[in-house]
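Input/output pair, single chain:
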Amino acid sequence: MKIFCLGGAGRICREAILDLVKNSAATRITVADINAEAARQVVAWLADPRVDFVVADVTRRAELIDQMRGYDVVMDGTTIGLNGLSTACIAAAACHGINLNGFGEEASSDAEFIKNGKTCVPGFGMTPGVTQMMVMHAAEQLDTVEIARVSHGAYRPIAFSPSIFETTAYEYDPQLPGRVVFEDGEFRQVPPFARPRDIALPEPYGTAPEYIIPHAETKTLAKNLAGKGIRLIEVRGTWPQPNMQLIRALYDWGFMRNDKITLKGVEFGIMEAIGAYLMQVREGRETKLYGYSLHVEVEGQRDGQRVRHTLWHTHPSSDGSVPDWAGLRAYTRNVGIPLSIGAQLLAQGLVAKCGVITPEEAFPPAAVFAALKKRDIHIHEAVAFL
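Output:
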């Protein structure tokens, strides 16, 4: 089993690679990143003879395809803006592929994956990813599914890396066409900060308002629950409250449009300047509370009675009491570990369908939950008859 880890020097992807080292039968694990020094640091940190590195540039298509050939799976940790390019390279190299984001550019490579008898699963971290597994676990126990509400709290600094700030700016871009809910058979566009709903997350996170976000679950669940009578799918999220206060102010003042401005003869998008600032100051790189929290509600009918399944997850504390989970790593491990689990399931040949497919089509929830439990990430469930 050989796994090529694109963008492997990033803070999240390196956690996925650590999980491969600890829990997989991989014979070769390649850290592939444009930043050679950071890749070397990851190799030194892992200190495992199976791990090597290459300098890889997504914009150098032919070279990257050659580098990928012969690997079983490409675990793609690149940013949203690069996922279309990276996925096309994975398909051309005839590898299986999996990434964290799943925002849609991957679909254009579907025919190439099918031709090569390979599979690509876009969007398999905590959310999207584990959230779909939680919904499908509940749906499997119901005769019909009418409502699926997916929520999460991502407790991390607003700009600890370029890709994280890109995600922040993307999700609250007022012109983004993909911020939708599924309601009564159609996708309906909503603006940033739409449909606030107080979500009670377990301690230490607590209850906070969450808003509709443009995540892949809305569309993948609409597809995979179509036969169950689904009427409403809403996906919400929040970050630490200071982050949300900042984004709200930036939105209200028009900064989130990323208008071009000129300063001392140099033109740039205003959000590029804000992102650069936040990545260089303590306020952008630190937060008081670290970790991740998922919350899913699924309502439907079983044996003629209305039922609500509520699922949530817990993980080791970020307070330093558990090795490897202190501070920011309580966030990055939550996201990176599911990516590793998905890559391993693909490499083991346990996904039969070829092409670009959804997490719901690829993975059985029970297998994912069992793998998470081994890593001390636990899925909890409560069932109420309404």
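The two ends are 48 Å apart (CA to CA). DSSP finds 14 helices and 18 strands in the chain.
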